[in-house]
Design a protein that fits this description.
Blueprint (H helix, E strand, L loop, with lengths): L1 E7 L7 H11 L4 E7 L5 H10 L4 E4 L12 E2 L1 H6 L4 E4 L3 E4 L2 H10 L8 E5 L3 H10 L4 E5 L3 H11 L2 E3 L4 H4 L5 E4 L22 E4 L8 H8 L3 E3 L1 H17 L5 H14 L1
Parallel strand pairs: 1-2, 1-3, 4-6, 7-8, 7-10, 8-9, 10-11, 11-12
Antiparallel strand pairs: 3-5, 5-6
Helix pairs in contact: 1-9, 1-10, 4-5, 4-9, 9-10
Bound molecules: NADP nicotinamide-adenine-dinucleotide phosphate.
The site of NADP nicotinamide-adenine-dinucleotide phosphate has 25 residues, from helix 4, helix 5 and helix 9.
Length: 265
């Protein structure tokens, strides 16, 4: 049996085991995916220990995505973004970032992303991956609470940084709005409300707890198309699955499994 797992802290509420185990079962792959709470000081032991124990792969989640870089050979994308969310133990310890691909696939399910004007809230780990990927196809604006961090990221990706106070002026010309902050996570609050949104835009909230965040409710009120955070979660998980197995991931099966798990609570 092949062994996989997710390491993070906290990790109790991770939906990755449900999603990955369902995919293995559906494709008759003899594998098991578990979750492990790992303290920051023990991160190196956990990664190298998993390799010694014969694990095939790991996912890495908050708060270890940046520090994990130290223990892997990153591919070009992960090295460029500076964060790792997928490790594959094959002829060494290889590191990847599938968050970028997850967000792109989630968006492409409802809209073309080429040549668009995209406003991204946040400049943390998730925003770094998403903005790096999307800036290859579109014009990206970064609005972050700490302006200096937003500016640093915008400069790195060839985008533009704006202050959070200025989003109301810019929003009229935005095609796609992405929330990549923690605002809305287990709270009924948003950085922008329906009166400032418009029906010709796509609004994507990568936060998935709750599934329908305050921002998505406001976007619906404005008549905008919406995408929830589970879409990105599923697509980043599918990309990890494909790195590990070389087999096309059963995306619909994985999505059904996580949506059931969320509904069950
Ligand atoms: P992170 O690195 O800690 O970054 C947090 C970001 O949120 C920073 O830009 C921070 O701004 C901003 N922020 C925090 N509190 C704020 C406030 N009160 N007002 C305005 N901005 C605020 O976190 P992350 O790893 O990027 O994750 C962000 C969210 O995305 C989390 O909720 C996470 O669960 C979710 N996520 C979802 C997926 C998925 O697959 N759907 C994948 C990854 C992450 P400052 O720079 O000013 O602190």
């Amino acid at each position: 049996m092949k062994l996989f797992g997710i390491i993070g802290n906290p990790v109790k509420h991770s939906l990755s085991p449900v999603m990955q185990n369902e995919a293995f079962k559906y494709l008759n792959i003899d594998a098991c995916y578990l979750k492990f709470k790992v303290e920051e000081a023990k991160l190196g032991y956990a990664i190298l220990g998993a390799e010694s124990l014969g694990f095939s792969g790991l996912n890495v989640t908050v708060p270890h995505k940046e520090k994990a870089l130290k223990y892997v050979e990153p591919d070009e994308l992960a090295g460029e973004i500076g964060t790792v969310n997928t490790i594959y133990f094959k002829r060494g310890v290889k590191g990847f970032n599938t968050d970028a691909m997850g967000a792109k696939m989630a968006l492409e399910g409802v809209t073309d992303i080429k040549g668009k004007r995209i406003l991204i809230f946040g400049a943390g780990g998730a925003s770094k991956a998403i903005s790096y990927e999307l800036s290859r196809y579109s014009e990206v604006l970064i609005a972050n609470r700490t302006f200096s961090k937003g500016l640093k990221l915008a400069n790195k990706i060839g985008g533009e940084a704006i202050r959070l106070d200025d989003i109301f002026r810019e929003i009229k010309s935005v095609d796609i709005l992405i929330n990549a902050t923690t605002v809305g996570l287990n709270e009924d609050r948003s950085l922008i409300y329906s009166k400032n949104l418009h029906k010709d835009m796509v609004v994507f909230d990568i936060v998935y707890s709750p599934l329908k965040t305050c921002l998505l409710k406001e976007a619906e009120k404005a008549g905008a198309k919406t995408i929830d955070g589970l879409k990105m979660l599923v697509h980043q998980g599918a990309a990890s699955f494909e790195i590990w197995t070389g087999v096309k991931a059963p995306v619909k099966v994985m999505e059904r499994a996580v949506r059931h798990a969320v509904e069950r609570g």
